[in-house]
Amino acid sequence: MISLRLDTKSGIPPYLQIAQQVRQALVAGILRPGDQLPTVKEVVTQLAINPNTVFKGYRELEHEGLVEGRPGAGTFVLRRPPGPAPGAHAALVRSLARWVDKARDAGLDDRSIEAMVRETLHAGGAEAIA
Amino acid sequence: MTWLLWRQHRSQALVTGIAIALFAVAVWLTGVHMGNILYAARNCDATHTCGFNGNLFSGYGAIIDLVHLSIVVPLLLGAFFGASLIARETEHATNVLVWTQSVTRRRWLFSKVATAIGATIVLSAAISALVTWWSGTPNSFYGNRFEGAQFDSQNIAPIAFAVFAVALGLAAGSILRRPLPALATTVFAYAGVRLLVSVYLRPHYEKAVSRVYALTANANPPSGSWTLSQHLVTGAGKSADGPIAIPDTCRVAADRTTSDTCLGKLGYHFVIRLHPASQYWRFQWMEAGLFLVLAAALVAVALVHTLRHDA
Amino acid sequence: MTDLAIDTVDLGKRYGSVWALQHCSIEVPVGRVSGLVGANGAGKTTLMRMLAGLSRPSAGTAHVAGRAPADNRDFLREIGYLAQEVPLYRRWNAEDHLALGAHMNPAWDDGLTRDRLRNLRIPLDRPMEALSGGMRAQVALALALGKRPQVLLLDEPVAALDPLARREFLSALAGAVADGGVTVLLSSHLLPDLERVCDHLILIADSQPVICAEIDDLLASHKLLTAPARDTTAIERDHQVLTCTRTPREVSLIAKLNGPVIDPAWRVDDIDLEEIVLAYLGQRSHQETGFALVEGGR
Question: Rg (Cα) of chain A, in Å, rounded?
């Protein structure tokens, strides 16, 4: 069983946070196919959030084909998300670490680095900046 | 509603029940004792036990006070029971709690008020019955049941007073919405109305009867009547209040009787205005009726105001 | 057309010559948890009391669970109300209050209510005056829910509670909503609490409703627009601008968008609920002073 958290300051809509946390639990193997997700009531009582938020989050996962809602029984895991296993992005992480070192050498502090990353994400990646 | 009424008022009911029981015991014991004293006094020639000193209540001073204090019972009921019945709920907002259950405001109000009035009638009737029974002996000895405190505390008048006081409390409580101001208002209004009625209205329920007595006669009003006034009246019909100037012709009289006869020949006599004893029950019903009508109006005010006003 | 749990048309309440609430036309669909926000004295309690049938409107109409508020059993059965003072009988314990609920409500669910109190570890035999504020609020909530209303009206129930008690209350409320079958109108002047548990928002300012919408719609349609200093006429024409801040270099607007922003010079950012509410409140206060500006020949 997983316990869910809510970060009200992150700017990410709560229902997406829930979907994200379930997905991460699936990727990490904490939740396996056949396991039941926490019931809407359990999540809602733990986090003091609106039930619709949980419904929406679980529906996201349903659209991705990761879970299945069975009326009267609950929501159950169907399969692990497709894609690389954890650790598959090790190369990306390493090149990111190298880039961060470069940025720091150039004199940027952490906040400027974060702002730069955010700007780039916002603008849509390399094609947009070029 | 039955459950709610009992749960809210059960400790009040218990305390009142115990108080009445104690009162009844005290009244019973002293009443029987008094009756015995009077019976012995009236029959003392036959039994040679005359020693009656004219005091029916020897040794029972406190009980007399208690019985006479029963005159205050209506006021207590009205002030502490009637004034807080609705006002306590509105002050603490518990009326909002009960008015958002599934029982209508109307039903809640009518049950509460009906129970309050009903309980008041039963309570005051019980006390009045005890006091009336107890007063049988002093009534026949002093012949004063038509007067003042005796009239107020026996038979049906005290029941009407109690209902009036509670109705006053209900009306004050519903308008003022807090128990303490309602209590104060009830006390003053009750005292004021009772005073006004007994002093200015009651003597006029019926036309008073005038009895004329010669000075030499034993001018005592008949037992059981209500004396409104006694005057010495001159031959010309003018009432002679204060020290009278005895005419010289009578001054030389040796004793009181001769003086009285002399004055009598000059036209002086006593006039006593009274309501005869036969009117007692008529007056009881009229007084009770008046206060019950007032009570009905006040209850209507309480009901209408509570139902129409925002919670 | 979804059913409406709460529906008012031009509802108003006047005390003497002062309107505590006016031109109040709001709709809350069934199943929502709607947050009623506004400053103290804005008219929230006035609205709630009219919806609960505790006070009579001076103007307009209201329907709650399809019925006009009235002193009859059919209406009273459908609502649950929790007043700001959290009124309970001080000397009574929780057991007594449960009995009150059972005797005064035909649709009373005793088992459910007892379970709820037991899960919260609230002692049933201690008098209300011996319980903490948070526990009393939970008892009152359990009572209101125990009669199985269709619409639950809660007037600032957490205002006087500490953060932990507040969280526990909202948890209990959210759990009850998850059980299904109840629409909630919850008033507060604390927006962060409402953001978590509500999916619908009503903002009352100066005795009138200013927002009445689903929170998702609000978040989707209200955006922060930033651009280098320029003329804003086009934006103001196409969308509803709430606030406008100008510096010599830059202009930023908070607006309710009526469609996509075509001009690429504008950067469009999401804003959170608090900023949206403040934008509406700021707009109102500017409206009052703005009058003078317009008159002065702008």
Answer: 18
φ, ψ for residue A118, nearest 5 deg:
-65, -45
d(CA B103, CA C146): 15
CA-nearest of C192, C219, C187 to C202 is C187
Could you tell me if B139 and B145 are in contact, meaning their C-beta atoms sit under 8 angstroms apart? yes
Cα distance between residue B110 and residue B299, in whole Å = 10
CA distance A80 to chain C (A): 28
Name the token pair of A8.
């009200």
Nearest CB partner across the interface for C77, out of B7, B93, B102: B102
Between chains, do C147 and B93 touch, taking CB under 8 Å as contact?
A: no
pTM of the model: 0.84
Question: Phi and psi at residue C11, in whole multiples of 5°?
Answer: -70, 140
Burial class of B261 by CB neighbour count within 10 A (0 to 12, 13 to 18, 19+):
middle
Other CB atoms within a 10 A radius of the CB of residue C297 amount to 5
The Cα B310–Cα C55 span in angstroms is: 4
Token pair listed for C63: 């329907």
Interface ipTM above 0.95: no
Tens of pLDDT, residue by residue, chain B (311 residues) = 899 999 999 999 999 999 999 989 988 888 888 888 777 777 776 655 566 666 666 656 666 677 777 888 888 888 888 999 999 999 999 999 999 999 999 999 999 999 999 999 999 999 999 999 988 888 887 888 888 888 998 999 999 999 999 999 999 999 999 999 999 999 999 999 999 999 999 999 988 888 888 777 776 778 888 988 888 777 776 776 666 666 666 666 667 777 777 777 777 788 888 898 899 999 999 999 999 999 999 999 999 999 999 88
Give the Cα separation of B311 and C69 in Å (integer). Answer: 13
The answer to whether residue C106 neighbours chain B at the CB level (below 8 Å) is yes
In chain C, what is the greatest distance between 2 CA atoms, to the nearest angstrom? 70
Contacts of B97 in chain C (CB under 8 A): 83, 87-89, 143
Contact between B307 and C71 using a beta-carbon 8 Å cutoff: yes
Q: What share of chain C is helix, strand, coil (3-state, %, to 5)?
A: 35, 30, 35
Instruction: Please report residues of B whose CB lies closer than 8 A to that of C52.
Output: 100
Across the interface, do A45 and C219 touch by the CB < 8 Å criterion? no
Q: Any bridge partners for residue C33, and if so which? A: C184
Q: Which one of B96, B102, B105 has the shortest CB-CB distance to C105? A: B102
pLDDT digits (tens, 9 = 90+) for A28-41: 888 888 889 999 99
E-assigned strand segments in chain C: 4-15, 18-24, 27-29, 33-37, 59-64, 79-82, 151-155, 183-188, 200-205, 208-214, 222-228, 240-246, 250-256, 267-270
Residue C159's nearest CA partner among C247, C267, C45 is: C45
In chain A, residues with a C-beta closer than 8 Å to the C-beta of C172 are 45
Chain B, nearest residue to C77 by Cα:
B102
Residue B186 to residue C61: CA distance in whole angstroms = 39
- SS3 of residue C76 by DSSP: helix
β-bridge mates for residue B275, sequence order: B226
CA distance C194 to chain B (A): 24
Distance of CA A107 to the CA centre of its chain: 31
Q: Which residue of A has its CA nearest to C214?
A: A52
- CA–CA dist B52, B57 (Å, integer): 11
CB neighbour burial string for B154-181, b if at least 16 within 10 angstroms, e if fewer: bbbbbbbbbbbbbbbbbbbbbbbbbbeb
Is A75 touching C (CB cutoff 8 A)?
no
Are the C-beta atoms of residues C45 and B55 closer than 8 Å to each other?
A: no
CB atoms C104 and B106 under 8 Å? no
